[in-house]
UniProtKB/TrEMBL annotation:
<dbReference type="Pfam" id="PF02569">
    <property type="entry name" value="Pantoate_ligase"/>
</dbReference>
<feature type="binding site">
    <location>
        <begin position="153"/>
        <end position="156"/>
    </location>
    <ligand>
        <name>ATP</name>
    </ligand>
</feature>
<feature type="active site" description="Proton donor">
    <location>
        <position position="40"/>
    </location>
</feature>
<comment type="similarity">
    <text>Belongs to the pantothenate synthetase family.</text>
</comment>
<feature type="binding site">
    <location>
        <position position="64"/>
    </location>
    <ligand>
        <name>beta-alanine</name>
    </ligand>
</feature>
<keyword id="KW-0963">Cytoplasm</keyword>
<feature type="binding site">
    <location>
        <begin position="190"/>
        <end position="193"/>
    </location>
    <ligand>
        <name>ATP</name>
    </ligand>
</feature>
<dbReference type="InterPro" id="IPR014729">
    <property type="entry name" value="Rossmann-like_a/b/a_fold"/>
</dbReference>
<feature type="binding site">
    <location>
        <position position="64"/>
    </location>
    <ligand>
        <name>(R)-pantoate</name>
    </ligand>
</feature>
<keyword id="KW-0566">Pantothenate biosynthesis</keyword>
<feature type="binding site">
    <location>
        <position position="182"/>
    </location>
    <ligand>
        <name>ATP</name>
    </ligand>
</feature>
<dbReference type="GO" id="GO:0004592">
    <property type="term" value="F:pantoate-beta-alanine ligase activity"/>
</dbReference>
<comment type="pathway">
    <text>Cofactor biosynthesis; (R)-pantothenate biosynthesis; (R)-pantothenate from (R)-pantoate and beta-alanine: step 1/1.</text>
</comment>
<keyword id="KW-0067">ATP-binding</keyword>
<feature type="binding site">
    <location>
        <position position="159"/>
    </location>
    <ligand>
        <name>(R)-pantoate</name>
    </ligand>
</feature>
<dbReference type="GO" id="GO:0005829">
    <property type="term" value="C:cytosol"/>
</dbReference>
<dbReference type="GO" id="GO:0005524">
    <property type="term" value="F:ATP binding"/>
</dbReference>
């Protein structure tokens, strides 16, 4: 199995894209921050089904981290990641920050994207400016790589909602494909940040999938109010875990639903385990009033 070719510069990536276009090849992009796990590899496998050529971008984007967050200690494991992608991806785009944001070295400024009001809720309420940073880098990656298809994970449900809006707003000819969350056998969603957890914290992190199970069960007959209550109460049994939010949103607009809402809903949950912030999500087919 041959390892993917790594492009480190925008010039290399642009030349590659031009060559592939000339050959009539379609391209699927999987944007990541690296520290790859089986969830990422599932996105790559999906990308493989959707296009001739698969590019994985690996870039820990400084713009989406706030002061006091884990930008400095975020795992950077490029060599291991490239090896893990052998036989799965064709190319890795792993640019330096100066390549992505040339204004840092006196070059032109990259257009800043704004996530709007949805970007200020849930993850955005706890991580102010996070989604402006995510959308700015995603738009920049789209502009450089010019994918036909982009594959994202549903685990980051709010990110998916906002990227879909971004594609529409900018009128980009990019198909957005969203993959369900890949989990450990005991239900914990795979996440690069799981590696921060001690053994005890790893057990406590099960609060998130346990809450989602309780929510799905309650949603069979309960209304939005009781579903929220049941989900939140699960966290009372996990003293190592601090619940940030557990809520229900309307997937069409990402607005918090009212207590008497009827229809499909997305559960979004975020919690801090020790010092590690984890998120998870689940789609509910229907809530009852
Ligand atoms: N368990 C998973 N199943 C499917 N997709 C996933 C999973 N975890 C992450 N992804 C997706 O992988 C892409 C890259 O995400 P990222 O590199 O931030 O990984 P992560 O594991 O979520 O990292 P972090 O722990 O920093 O949030 C995103 O589209 C994200 O939704
Ligand atoms: C989409 C993304 C790669 C942008 O930095 C990041 O937010 C992520 O890994 O989900
Ligand atoms: N998976 C979203 C990237 C972040 O937490 O910054």
């Amino acid at each position: 199995m041959s390892a993917p070719q790594v492009c480190h510069t925008v010039a290399e990536m642009t030349a590659l894209r031009e060559q592939l276009s000339a050959e009539g090849k379609t391209l699927a992009l999987v944007p990541t921050m690296g520290a790859l796990h089986a969830g990422h590899l599932a996105l790559v496998a999906r990308a493989r089904e959707l296009a001739d050529v698969v590019v994985v971008s690996i870039f820990v984007n400084p713009l989406q981290f706030g002061a006091g967050e884990d930008f400095d200690r975020y795992p950077r494991t490029l060599d291991v990641d490239v090896a893990a992608l052998a036989g799965h991806a064709d190319y890795v785009f792993a640019p330096a920050a100066e390549e992505v944001y040339p204004e840092r070295v006196g070059g032109p400024a990259v257009p800043a994207q704004k996530a709007g009001s949805v970007g200020d809720t849930f993850e955005g309420a706890s991580r102010p400016g996070h989604f402006d940073g995510v959308l700015t880098v995603v738009a920049r990656l789209f502009d450089i790589v010019k994918p036909d298809v982009a594959v994202f994970g549903q685990k980051d449900a709010q990110q998916v909602f906002l990227v879909r809006e971004l594609i529409q707003k900018l009128g980009l000819p990019i198909q957005l494909d969203v993959l369900h969350t890949i989990r450990e056998a005991d239900g914990l969603a795979l996440s690069s940040r799981n590696r921060y957890l001690s053994e005890e914290e790893r057990q406590a992190a099960l609060a998130l999938p346990h809450a989602l199970l309780a929510v799905a069960h309650e949603a069979q007959h309960g209304n939005a109010a009781s579903v929220r209550e049941v989900g939140r109460s699960v966290f009372e049994k996990y003293p190592l875990v601090r619940l940030d939010y557990l809520d229900l949103v309307d997937p069409t607009n990402f607005q918090r639903v009212s207590d008497d809402y009827q229809g499909p809903a997305t559960v979004v949950v975020a919690a801090v385990v020790g010092t590690t912030r984890l998120i998870d999500t689940e789609n509910l087919e229907r809530l009852h009033a």
